[in-house]
Amino acid sequence: AYNFNAGPAALPLDVLQQAQAEFVDYRGIGMSIMEISHRSKEYEQVNDEAQSLMKELLGVPNGYEVLFLQGGASTQFAMIPMNYLQQGQAAGYVLTGSWADKALKEAKGIGETYVAGTGEASGFRRIPAPNEIEVRPNAAYIHITSNETIAGSQYAEYPDIGSVPLIADLSSDILCRPVDVSKFDFLYAGAQKNLGPSGVTVVIAKEGMLKDSPKGLPTMLRYDTHAKSKSLYNTPPVYSVYIVSLVLKWIKGLGGLEAMERLNHDKTKLIYDAIDGSGGFFEGLVDPGSRSLMNITFALGSDELEKKFIQEAEAAGFVGLKGHRDVGHMRASTYNAVPYESCKALAEFMQEFQRRNG
Ligand code: PLP
């Protein structure tokens, strides 16, 4: 299949094959990795390796920690304000689409919030520029969504906001390109797009953000609990973290994040060129300066034509091209594991479809 699913999404074939080879007998121990203690030396090695590879690939500076948590990025939407939003403060959220909105809604139930910037006037076709973000004197933090999975937009440049903590949701674009982690105080990402299977959420944060969570918070919802125990406070999602460790090795083997970014640019260029070169037959749903390297959204002139496109694409082996139910139209998710060949095949299919229907 040409897998363009938005998430859970494609995994590298090499990773799936290695996981298959190790599934029943993990590296000669006579059992699966899922059947042994998370306190065993074998799992500790997986956990340590995944943390250190994440730091290596992203160039995480000293003074930051990597955590593996559960509950998806959606749980982070609540844990962030629970841990960092105090009385008398307001948390600023930059609205770029559905996921930023969900994060904001969750924080509203916990404390005072404000909209620090918004792309709403453009119908979320563009990400607010760094100088359009308002940092209030009592801001607890500013939250941004690096890549809007549903709208198909992505920050080309992250804002500098001074001494107020910058927190970012990288669920759908982590490791798609190099990132200057030192710009951020706290990053998080659900695994099921670029990192591995669902079930694990990565947090990368300054050590100071992971200490002294407010009194009264439940144990599992405190960052200090997980930081103190190296993400082994309770039983972790062992298999998901194991696959994440294989995916990280796969990225390292390809040449790291510079190589990943080049590949992602080459892949998405094929599809954006098919849109831009179509003379309006295909319409991109995001302004060029805010386009995503991971989720390409586009429309056709009518509902009938879009239905026909999806049907014929499915028959030709393309999976997951239907847009999210909130926005409709089409979306091709071109995460790290989607091969160049799949993007080339899709671009050719689009051109061929236009020849027959344009
Ligand atoms: N944030 C973004 C940008 C997402 O794309 C998603 C899921 O698609 C989420 C958050 C929610 O993630 P989860 O399902 O892990 O809670």
TrEMBL record:
Q: Which UniProt keywords apply?
A: Amino-acid biosynthesis, Aminotransferase, Cytoplasm, Pyridoxal phosphate, Serine biosynthesis, Transferase
Q: Which cofactor does it need?
A: pyridoxal 5'-phosphate
User: What residues bear N6-(pyridoxal phosphate)lysine in this entry?
Assistant: 193
Q: Which PROSITE patterns match?
A: AA_TRANSFER_CLASS_5 (PS00595)
Can you tell me which residues bind L-glutamate? 39
A Gene Ontology biological process noted in the UniProt record is:
L-serine biosynthetic process
Q: Which InterPro entries match?
A: Aminotrans_V_dom, Aminotrans_V_PyrdxlP_BS, Pser_aminoTfrase, PyrdxlP-dep_Trfase, PyrdxlP-dep_Trfase_major, PyrdxlP-dep_Trfase_small
**Gene Ontology, cellular component aspect:** cytoplasm
Top enzyme class: transferase
Could you say which residues bind pyridoxal 5'-phosphate here? 73-74, 99, 149, 169, 192, 234-235
Task: Give the record's cofactor note, including how many are bound.
Answer: Binds 1 pyridoxal phosphate per subunit.
Q: What is its EC number?
A: 2.6.1.52
Q: Provide the GO MF annotations for this entry.
A: O-phospho-L-serine:2-oxoglutarate aminotransferase activity; pyridoxal phosphate binding
Q: Which reaction does it catalyse?
A: O-phospho-L-serine + 2-oxoglutarate = 3-phosphooxypyruvate + L-glutamate; 4-(phosphooxy)-L-threonine + 2-oxoglutarate = (R)-3-hydroxy-2-oxo-4-phosphooxybutanoate + L-glutamate
- UniProt subunit comment: Homodimer.
| Protein name as annotated | Phosphoserine aminotransferase
Q: Which organism is it from?
A: Paenibacillus oceani
